[in-house]
Amino acid sequence: MKKFDKERVLLAVAGPVIALAVAFALSSIVLIASGKNPVEPYTLMFEQATYSDVQVLIINQASMYYIAALAVAIGFRMNLFNIGVDGQYQLAAMMTAIVGAHANLPAALQVPLLLLTALCTGAFWAGIAGVLKVTRGVSEVVATIMLNAIATSVIAYLWLPDVFGVKVGNNNTTGVMHESGWIPGFDMGDAGEIYGLVLLAVLLGIGYWIVLNRTRFGFDLRASGASESAAAASGVDPKRMVLTAMLISGAIAGLAGLPILMGDTHTFSLNFPTGIGFLGIGIALLGRNSPVGIAFAALLWAWLDKASPELDFHDYDKEIAVIMQGLIVLSVVVSYEAVREWGLRRQQRRVGAELAAGHVLGADNNTSKEVAGR
Amino acid sequence: MTAVELAGITKRFPGVVANHDIHLTVRKGTVHALVGENGAGKSTLMKILYGMQKPDEGTIAVEGRQVTFSSPADAIARGIGMVHQHFMLADNLTVLENVVLGSEKLYGIGAKARRKIKELSDRYGLGVEPDRLMEELGVAARQRVEILKVLYRGATTLILDEPTAVLVPQEVEALFDNLRDLKAEGLSVIFISHKLGEVLSVADEITVIRRGTTVGTAVPSQTTPRQLAEMMVGSELPTPETAESTVTDRPVITVDKLRLAAPGGKALLDDISFTIHEGEILGIAGVEGNGQTELVDALIGLRNADSGTIKLADDEITAWATRKRREHGIGYIPEDRHRHGLLLDAPLWENRILGHVTEKPNAKGVWLDPKAAQEDTRRIVAEYDVRTPGIDVTAASLSGGNQQKLIVGREMSHKPRFLIAAHPTRGVDVGAQAAIWDHIREARREGLAVLLISADLDELIGLSDTLRVIYNGKLVADADPATVTPEELGSAMTGAATGHLEHPENAEPGADTPEIRKSPEAPEDEAR
């Protein structure tokens, strides 16, 4: 059996490695085409990753990417495409900021209250799409895209000064949260501070793995994703599963903005990072919906983000990093499918070969059974 | 003069050699039968001849000239046409439209095409009416349209893939008359089947294929069914015969006036009532598409009945969800194991959990118990002779028969009270078939109630304690499997006969030895 385990690791690694190699190669072609050195930008960016302050930035950024990507991945595991993580986390962050600015409980209550607010807001916003899909058959892709647009408008409304908004110069904010809802970071000295909620990201990753692989619910969810018809025949209620998965995905999405909100900005303003939900889709893809894979992917993405500004100082355009992210996503989709099919064929051939050689489980005591060699 | 000659054809698929050194020579103006068990490699061979697959080795010659096909279009250009087992027709188009679809360049789409269709239909006695809407036609008429489609495209060699699988015995005779007309006109027919009686009555020559290779050629007049059967299987044929009755009077499942309607209001199931007792196998005969799928869905809970009740022992389960029904002892061997029975990309031990995720040994409370599930998978693999190198390989890498044995093992492991077995041996090799029958019989002895749905009349007659015939969503006839013949069942399956099926003039000499009739080669025995 060891052979198959090794095989699985090989297959798991082959996809991303091929995708990254192809993406780097294609980016180099872009650089050559624009008359630039095709290697130097990478060396510059790698160099950036060795500075401790950039490392802190990367980890902080990656924690949010990680949570967003987990939210997307939950959907992916059961063939649901929650493209609305972007709207869910922004709306959730805003609601959390508003609650944090108006409620003032002791920290032991305030922090859970804020987390709960984020969870519920995200779940609610995703749940709308879930209900629409279950009751009216509306595609969750369409519904969540629309809800993203609506979320933007809701946020703009809540920012109005006579609603919850507080104007700070030209900036719209929600006012500063009470300190009981601030989460202290890990002090790294000169390098800066790592958000305290990076720990939350790690815990979510562990929880994700446990729920999917070690609970009945996780099995049902994965079965629904692998084969809707087989899952239904096995006793999964498809509608309830869609709704539940949507709610969980949304709840996790709601947490994606909290590391920076509760660890750094303490207010939801125009400067609050946007687009994390969309990046999460690419990261979940690259990480193959596995908690470890997503962690690497999130770090890679954050590195491209945080190391690329340096390029501007060396006469390169930092957009090369964005091109690369795009190319990675494209090559990921192609290479994963290719590797998956290759792996399947390889395994079938191997099973055939083992059977032909008489290695049949249960035929251990040298009475190797006759094997149908068709 | 040879129409088609295949020499040394070998085709390998991942994990299996589907064809190995196959030789097949079809003379012009003959019906050449290709027989072999399910999974012997007949379909692969025909896909190669029809240009859907490329052989790894070997040559194809058409009328003496060597050819290579890279697509079905190439094959049609050489006069080779295929009538598929599953029809490829558009219901909402007329016969004429279906025939010209894709070949508009040949004779246009108007009067000229209609003339051509008429001419072909008359010449080969197909009786096709060009302006009928396809959805109005029955299965046999659709098949004739498929044949005409192929002729229309200029085929001189026709491949018919299991053409009789969907037909009742009377329709089979009519088809054979058509085939004789075709061959009288100098066309060649390759007839794929695993039914020996049909093969012997229609073929001029027979090539037997077993485990992917041709094991011999036979001429019907010099061959007995037994010889042919043994060539096909390589050993004695198993029979699905059930020894003594184990039927009790304790009802396990009681269905009363079950009705299920399509969204438009058309009844898919109407007034279905039956009771299955402990130790009883109730067989449902019927041409596919007459409500069998809907009946299974209603029993397992994938569809809710519009009216009527289903009782499991003393519990009314009509409103229960699928999971609750399964937890309470309904086992399910689905008709389409790839869609409903397996997670193809998941390892075997996860497939062992599927459908029983809430039950022991798969779960402890809300937690999965992978260790116990894996351990139990090893037991199933050993007890049910699932041929696999391990339990971590994906279900997709097993052959159909082994997948099915895994499913049977999984369902039996939870000691069901009631088993829904829909085509339990479809597409599995003969060894697995016998094993599956044994498992069903054994469980029946221990008091299991079984609903058996099958297209294989011999399987139905051999295994069942009671037989019912489903036609158009209704149970129209019942029969005693000890005395009924496939022909009698066949006429009920077309709706021609209803009520209790009995011999009109009773007692042929073999009436007191019913097991002869039950064996798969029974029809041939009578023909002798």
Automatic annotation (TrEMBL), chain A:
Residues in the signal sequence: none
Location, primary (coarse class): membrane
Topology of the protein relative to the lipid bilayer: Multi-pass membrane protein
Cited InterPro entries: ABC_transp_permease
TM annotation in the entry: 9-34, 54-76, 88-105, 111-132, 141-160, 194-212, 242-262, 320-339
UniProt keywords, alphabetically: Cell membrane, Membrane, Transmembrane, Transmembrane helix
Keyword presence, Iron: no
Pfam families cross-referenced by the UniProt entry: BPD_transp_2
Annotated compartments: Cell membrane
Protein name, per record: ABC transporter permease
Species whose genome carries this gene: Streptomyces fuscus
UniProtKB/TrEMBL annotation, chain B:
Coiled coil start-end: none
Composition bias type Basic and acidic residues, residue spans: 514-528
Record-linked PROSITE patterns: ABC_TRANSPORTER_1, ABC_TRANSPORTER_2
One Pfam family it belongs to: ABC_tran
Domain spans labelled ABC transporter: 4-236, 253-497
Stretches the record annotates as Disordered: 489-528
Protein origin, superkingdom: Bacteria
Classification via InterPro entries: AAA+_ATPase (IPR003593), ABC_carbohydrate_import_ATPase (IPR050107), ABC_transporter-like_ATP-bd (IPR003439), ABC_transporter-like_CS (IPR017871), P-loop_NTPase (IPR027417)
Record key words, sorted: ATP-binding, Nucleotide-binding, Repeat, Transport
Gene3D superfamilies given in the database record: P-loop containing nucleotide triphosphate hydrolases
Gene Ontology MF, one: ATP binding
Annotated PANTHER family: CARBOHYDRATE TRANSPORT ATP-BINDING PROTEIN MG119-RELATED, GALACTOFURANOSE TRANSPORTER ATP-BINDING PROTEIN YTFR
Descriptive protein name: ABC transporter ATP-binding protein
Native species: Streptomyces fuscus
Lineage of source species: Bacteria, Bacillati, Actinomycetota, Actinomycetes, Kitasatosporales
